[in-house]
Amino acid sequence: MKIKYLNSRGNFKLDKADENSYLYFPIGNDADVMACVTPNLHGDNKIGQNSFLLEPVSVEGLHMTNNGRNVWFRINKKTVWAANGCSPLQVLAKQDESEEKKDFVTVEAGRLWHKMTRENASLGIAVTVLSYAPIGHQAEMMKVTAQNIGRDKLTIEPTVAIPLYGRSADNIRDHRHVTSLLHRTFVRKNGIEVKPTLSFDERGHVKNNVSYGVYTLDEEGKAPISFYPVLESFIGEGGNLTYPKAVVDQTYGKSIAMYEGDKVEGFESIAAMKMDKVVLKPGETKEYCIILSYNNQGLELLNPENEKRVFEETVRYWEEQLGIEVETGNKEFDQWLKWVGIQPTLRRIYGCSFLPHHDYGRGGRGYRDLWQDSLALLLNSKESIRNQLLSYYGGVRIDGSNATIIGKEPGDFIADRNSIVRMWMDHGVWPCMTTLLYINQTGDYEILLEETSYFKDRIIHRGTEMDGLWQEDSKVLHTHTNEIYKGTILEHILVQNLTAFYDVGDHGHMRLLGADWNDALDMAKENGESVAFSAAYAGNLENLGKLLLRLYKEKDWKKVALCTELMELIGNDPNIYKSVEKKREILKNYCNNCGSYISGKKEWISCEILAKDLLEKAEQIKKNIRSKEWIATGEEELGGWFNSYYDNNKNKVEGIFESGIRMMLTGQVFTILSRTATDQQISMIVKAADRLLFDDKIGGYRLNTNFNELKTDLGRMFGFAYGSKENGSVFSHMTVMYANALYSRGFVKEGYRALNQLFLQAADFESSRIYPGIPEYFNQNGRGLYNYLTGSASWYMLTVLTEMFGVKGDLGDLVIEPKLMACQFDKEGYAKISFYFARRKLLLIYENPEMKEYGDYEVEEIFIDDLKHDFEDSLPVIKRSYLKELEEEKEHVIRVKLA
């Protein structure tokens, strides 16, 4: 069983798709529709936590229920057969030795459209269901085509059968029956519509304003001939959705049928609608348009011409979301990468919830996700994300923490729910990383001087205290004179990174608090320390310091204004850095001075002095890690590595123990990326990771070795089975960042191995059992889980562009530094990548006719639109000013000859 790519657009096909229990495909759009569909038409559809049209489903529910989309067919007046394959006849046929009696199911899919074809040779019928969420409409379209594939005439009587849930996900077991009493179900001319009177959910008992409906017409515009809006009547006493009595027993069906204008109150609803019978000659087809709609949106699409037009618009919309495409020596990789490139956009739509594996939370993205998804959005689109970045900084608190409940609109942050306080210590890392990438890609360093407000709620002192003076109607920080305080973006970045610098544990590393990037390290709040992210903050401080020093020297940035309170965290005697107690005291004083209000006063500081202070702090962190955390095994083949964490008992987590060797990947990633690790140490880390963590049968590098301990003094991850989730799985996000770190330090072969192994695992359908894309992780069996909604997609695309293909910005100029392996060029020695830079669409073509390996070639010549482009530096650079002179609405070709 293998995924087959059909064309250069990434469309694919999978035969016998129904023989996989956990496959699902996302169907979403720009109008808040978040749906998914399986090869058996299961899955759900919603526009938010409190508005599910189809019943909410978790991953096990995909194969445990028939409560989903279906169209029943009575064939030749006697045989009952289902488009979703759920009838007893079809289930029993799976066990039959005769292939002719079995259904053959194929899935074909493209840019957010899914087409299932189910055919049965013995019955002479094939049914195709095309599913997608039309752009601009709160609706899902199902285009159903029935075809006679036999030799004789075929009589079919279709009955659409789609249960309407119509309420909040909370009601799946919280007042499930009571909320059905709120249902008001109406039979319309061409469909069935439910509009509950009230909504019972976390908001209380509120008047409901959302209607849920399913409507259908055939290709000639004919409506259903009868309707069955009540679920219990449709299935019949003792019946179920596998063999509904209204379909099986025509006499019973006629006795309960309802018609246009009828209304039902207080029952579970179903959009069951019988269409008139049709006689098909061999080869003939009959089409039906079915739309699942919120508030009657999209009903005009039931017209075949309108449906065709909007389908083409939907496909075109999704094609425009993909800004980066490659052509290498591996065509399957090129096609697979198209699906990885779409994933960051999917997370903008679905957040971190609303797909079967992602059955947690109530929608939206976390604060970390805003920044990591921005990486891909920055690289994939010619549109500026400047305003988005500015709005995201509005979620930063003056104590360096941040809002964790994110609203739908950019800059919409919500105060803590039910006074639940949790702080992830890594959150301050990502805004700086993303903003520095933005500045280098665009040259817009002036963004650092833009001003925005700070988020304010009851939480102060980095989650350790509550503000008794806080007014609940206020969401922004005020001065003592009750004016809204605004600071520069640079100030916001400094607040996040400097407060983290002083918030240290007993070993001088930054406190773990509620968790870091690894959310499952959540049981060491008091004494845990994250060595890994201490290194990450060191990288931030160093990179920001270098940028400010460069702006000071090259752009005449002499000084900047910062809030007076922040000055206490700048310019301290380096000797203080060695004292944990003094660091904590400085942080406490700072938090006391800006707990409820801030003075509003600002002071000027030299950019040179500030830059040097940041560089000193970065070096102090690195020295502390190098001196305390390197684990030297004494064995050349085993290598060495850095300890990543301290647990709540203040013990070092990694090393060689009686229970076994303990190593985690996270600490290696950030010590490499931040330049804390030396080149020699990186070589040792690679040896250790290859020996202790690498497993090519499940996708490459595991997140950690088996600790063989529950370890309640560090996190819930150790309660997971080893090889799953954060406990020893191949966690794509950290593996991709490991590759990125290795590439950035010149360890190209090693970085390529990590990236390529993830691709090989994902592409091996027999093992991964997923559609194209990168999942959150691969489990102990090599299966991909938590598909589509993962930050690893953003980092994968970032690494492919800026490291693998070596295309990156330098204060707005384009640097070309390829790090491609010889095997990545095609047979003629070409490798291509298309991307946006300086708001221009560029196609970069590397020419390596001698198929030289990385390290043996260098850039010899550059041609832009066939004109030779001279470069002065040893590192090829194309000035932004030159690119801006190129025509905007045209793809420009950059040919780079390697020799």
Automatic annotation (TrEMBL):
Which ranges carry the Glycosyl hydrolase 94 catalytic domain?
614-804
Matching SUPFAM superfamilies, A to Z? Galactose mutarotase-like (SSF74650), Six-hairpin glycosidases (SSF48208)
Origin: domain of life: Bacteria
GO molecular function per UniProt: carbohydrate binding; glycosyltransferase activity
Biological classification of the source: Bacteria, Bacillati, Bacillota, Clostridia, Lachnospirales
Q: What parts of the sequence cross the membrane?
A: none
> Boundaries of each Glycosyl hydrolase 94 supersandwich domain copy?
120-295
Entry-linked Pfam families: GH94_b-supersand, Glyco_hydro_94
Which keywords, in A-to-Z order, does the entry hold?
A: Glycosyltransferase, Transferase
> Which Gene Ontology biological process is one annotated for this entry?
carbohydrate metabolic process
Q: What is this protein called?
A: Cellobiose phosphorylase
* InterPro entries in the record: 6-hairpin_glycosidase_sf, 6hp_glycosidase-like_sf, Gal_mutarotase_sf_dom, GH65_N, GH94_catalytic, GH94_Enzymes, Glyco_hydrolase_94_b-supersand
